[in-house]
């Protein structure tokens, strides 16, 4: 493995982070040099200096191989999180070392879980930096998935499958063209949402921060009670639309924007994604209304849809306190916490693609039991799936659930209540953010023991790079 190659690419990742630190310091300066200006400026200088060393002293890198690509991806995540915690540590307040690490990992992995009791007490510069880590993490995920991970991990076969049908029509791009396509969709959605939220009555600063969090499906808000602070139907609708869009495959979104909108709705994954959110939302609407949680059908419908979309896309915004909802509604939201949205998006979780593949495989197996001599292929839309893909999807789901169970047990051993432990484990693994109980939609993770926060942060990273990459990186360094 060429470590010089690796160091240069990681240097580029850190340099990008330092640029946003400088921008955040600029935001602080704009707002009359608030308390975050010095921490952000110093962090930006330190990060840019460290990033510059490999860029200056290492010659232009050659083509990377699969092993180097894996190391670049994983170490870029970890080092971004490490340097990203600097502004928090230097600022102080609620940000101890472990809290700073947790908040940084939560931002970059677009999880959106927070240790902050009083978000609104933070200065504007630091609030912007929190949101910027979401936006950077979301963008990084999409690009790494499409450019590096598919070539080195069978877990990314799902992403390759989703792109393959699209590439036959209008996605015959080289790597750099693909980057521009994804970047255009990502930035375009962010800009449009920021404008719409501002027109709807949200402060421009808050609009940008919430747009960063929405398109990255992150969930960091500038308000203590999240979106419930605004109590605006228009703002809720705008956020719901953009959360749904951010949960779809970005390649399919690009296809729709460039005139082939039918390709979006031909996708069985997208249809299943939209149908599952719709069905769960309707059921929760009925449940919360009949249990007198909401005063009328309109409010029940509005909050049920918002929470279902927010959880189902791993965004984690809250328009209401879902922790007080009936147990059946909570169970449905927990299901969405595991399932989540489409591959090729910024969302986390198992991914709806895998759920649908395993369901199709189950149906095929049932038919095979009834007709033992029949040849029953597993189909997803018009495509026949090979056994390797079905096996990979099934094994991933099993491994995913095992990790959630192990972390739940560890948190319980640390004295965390069972509901808090289970939903915290599921929410952090799926990069959803809020769970239920004290870590619910209007709560936070401040009460989780330090060791528990560290375990959850590792779980967030594992969920974001989809497990296998974290396992492979250990094996790579063990062999060195």
Task: Write up what this structure looks like.
The chain has helices spanning 3-30, 37-57, 66-84, 86-91, 97-108, 124-147, 157-167, 175-199, 204-215, 233-246, 250-257, 262-266, 268-290, 297-312, 327-339, 352-370, 387-413, 418-429, 450-464, 468-479, and strands spanning 378-380, 383-385. With 480 residues, it is mainly α. A two-stranded antiparallel ribbon has the order 1-2. α6 runs antiparallel to α8 and α6 runs parallel beside α9 (204-215).
Q: Can you give keywords for this protein?
A:
single chain, 480 residues, two-stranded antiparallel sheet, 1% strand
What is this entry, summarized?
The chain is an all-alpha fold and 480 residues long.
Helix proportion of residues, in percent? 55-70%
- What's the assembly state of these chains? single chain
Largest sheet: 2 strands, antiparallel
- Radius of gyration, in Å, reads 22 Å
Low-confidence parts: 145-173
Would you tell me the structural class of the helices and strands? mainly alpha
* Estimated share of beta-strand residues: under 5%
Termini, distance in Å? Answer: 9 Å
| Mean pLDDT rating | 86
Secondary-structure map:
Layout: H1 3-30, H2 37-57, H3 66-84, H4 86-91, H5 97-108, H6 124-147, H7 157-167, H8 175-199, H9 204-215, H10 233-246, H11 250-257, H12 262-266, H13 268-290, H14 297-312, H15 327-339, H16 352-370, E1 378-380, E2 383-385, H17 387-413, H18 418-429, H19 450-464, H20 468-479
Antiparallel strand pairs: 1-2
